[in-house]
Amino acid sequence: MTDALAVGMSKLTTALLSIADLTDSLAPVSDILSRMLPGHPIVVVRLAFGDERLIGVSYDGRTQLVGHTSLGYSHPLTVGGEHIGAIEVHRNDSDAADEPLREAVALAADHMSVLITVALDNLRQTRLTDQLRGALASRSTIDQALGILMERNRCSRDAAFDTLRNASQQHNTKVAELAASLIETVTGAQPAATHFNEPEPTVRLNRANRGK
């Protein structure tokens, strides 16, 4: 593996594992691929997830691609054995996709496939965490509102929830939103924010450091 290819692999890792949205990363990824591949060709990265189609073009190709180059080589990108896109190398008609370039593209594609798998898993986990936090925050707001109704109406928790649910249906408003409105009306302040304790990072000591 050449120095340029090794450096490019490292940059690809950083680019793909530090993103919040794959859409925003494909153009920079294409730039990295162009700089790391032999001859610095114009590179296009295409991804497809369901009905969503993403494309990234390396910087040099954004003005040259149409009408000036042709597709010289394409290598698939896969996640879990499923074809999700490709790395395309576009060239001038006089250029050829030689064996070193093909091998470099194949290495980059294999590396990217692993990184995209990890990036997608991270994004899914982040979205799941956000959904869980939202659900817990809503539960906390509803609990605060139920406490207010129980004190006002001197009723049970179930009766307070029935009152809140019926009002929600009548006003076509989510229970959590109605609960928040009730709390703000009674207290003059928005519901107290739910506090989440962030887990401490796990630190693993290697054998040389153990016992020190």
Explained architecture:
The relative contact order is 0.10. The longest helix is centred in the middle third of the chain and has 55 residues, at 99-153. This protein has six helices and four strands, in the order H-H-E-E-H-E-E-H-H-H. Helix 1 runs antiparallel to helix 2 (22-36). The chain folds into two domains: 3-125, GAF domain (Beta-Lactamase, 2-Layer Sandwich), CATH 3.30.450.40; 131-187, Arc Repressor Mutant, subunit A (Orthogonal Bundle). The chain has helices at 3-17, 22-36, 61-68, 99-153, 157-171, 175-187, and strands spanning 42-49, 52-57, 70-79, 82-91. The chain has a four-stranded antiparallel sheet with strand order 2-1-4-3, sandwiched between helices.
Bulk shape: rod-shaped
Write out the CATH superfamily name of the largest domain. Answer: GAF domain
CATH architecture classification name of the largest domain: 2-Layer Sandwich
Spatial strand sequence of the major β-sheet:
2-1-4-3
Q: What Rg, in angstroms, do the CA atoms define?
A: 27 Å
What percent of residues are in strands?
A: 15-25%
Provide the domain count. 2
Count of separate DSSP helical elements: 6
Number of strands: 4
The residue ranges in which pLDDT falls below 50 over 5 or more consecutive positions are 201-212
